Amino acid sequence: MRAWMERSLDDTRDRPRYSSVRAAGLVCRPDGPEQPLVSKAVKFRVHVFATIVLVAFVVSLTAAFLFSALGRFERMAEESAQAVFDRVADANAAQLSGLIDTAGRAVRVLASLERALYLPESGAMEPAQRLLAAFVASHEPIYGLYFGLDGGEFVQVIAVGGDRRIREALDAPPGTAFARRAIAREEGVRVERWEFVDLEGASVGHRESRAEYDPTERDWYRTARAHHELVLTEPYVFQSSGALGLTVARRIDEAPGVVGVDLSLAALSAFVAESVAGQPGGLLILDPAGRVLAFGGDASGTALRAGFELLAPLDHSGPPEFAALAEALGDAAGEISRSVSLDGQPYVLAVREVQALPGVSYRIAAFAPLSAFDRHIVRARDDIVLLSLIVLGLSLPLAFLMARQASGALASLARDSERVRTFDFSGDVRVDTLFYEIDVLGQAHRTMKESIHSRTEALSAARDQLQDLVNSGLALASRHERKPLLNEIVAGAMRQSQADLVSVWLLTEQDTLELAACSAEPAVLPEPLPLRDEHGSPATGVLPVFVAVSRASLSVARPGDDPRFDHDFLDAFDRLTACHSAAILALPMLGADGRVLGVLHLTREAGAFSEAIVPFCDLLAAQAGMALDNQNLLEGQRVLMDALIRIIAGAIDAKSPYTGGHCERVPELALMLAEAASKSDEGGLAGFRFDTEDQWREFRVGAWLHDCGKVTTPEFVVDKATKLETLYNRIHEIRTRFEVLLRDAEIAHLKTLVSGGDVAESRKTFAARRTKLIEDFAFVAACNIGGEAMDDADVHRLQRIGAQTWLRHFDDRIGLSHEEATRMAARPVEALPAREPLLADKPHHRVERPAAQRHDEQHGFRMAVPDCLYDFGELHNLSVRRGTLTPEERYKINEHIIQTILMLEKLPLPRQLRRVPEYAGTHHETLTGTGYPRRLNAEELSIPARIMAIADIFEALTAADRPYKTGKTLSESVAILAEFCDAGHIDAELFELFLRSGVYLSYAKRFLDPTQIDDVDIDALLEGRG
Question: 282 with 297: CB under 8 angstroms?
Answer without folding.
Answer: yes
